[in-house]
Automatic annotation (TrEMBL):
Residues 43-64 are annotated as: Disordered. It comes from the Eukaryota. This is Polyadenylate-binding protein 2. It comes from Linum trigynum.
Length: 89
């Protein structure tokens, strides 16, 4: 190598490494986009499964459940499920 020559092997290696990083970044971005699409699809399917008859049907079922429910407040911590069963029975 002469005095005026510049060593380009380091620059070529850095450029190749940069190109590899860009390729990996592109692959990661593509995978992230695919995962977002899959998540949106699953959320859409789950929403349709949870509410198949529309909101009117779910409102009616909530009201029916509420009509059979009772609220119990101010219960001591030592109060067990078996003891409550004995009281209600």
């Amino acid at each position: 190598m002469e005095e005026g020559d510049v060593d380009m092997t380091g620059a070529d290696a850095n450029e190749a490494e940069l190109d590899d990083m860009k390729k990996r970044l592109k692959e990661i971005e593509d995978e992230a986009a695919a995962l977002r699409d899959m998540q949106a699809k699953v959320e859409k399917e789950m929403g349709s499964v949870q509410d198949p008859g529309g909101s009117g049907a779910s409102q009616a079922s909530r009201e029916e459940v509420d009509s059979r429910s009772i609220f119990v407040g101010n219960v001591r911590l030592l109060f067990t499920a078996s003891f409550s069963y004995l009281l209600i029975r």
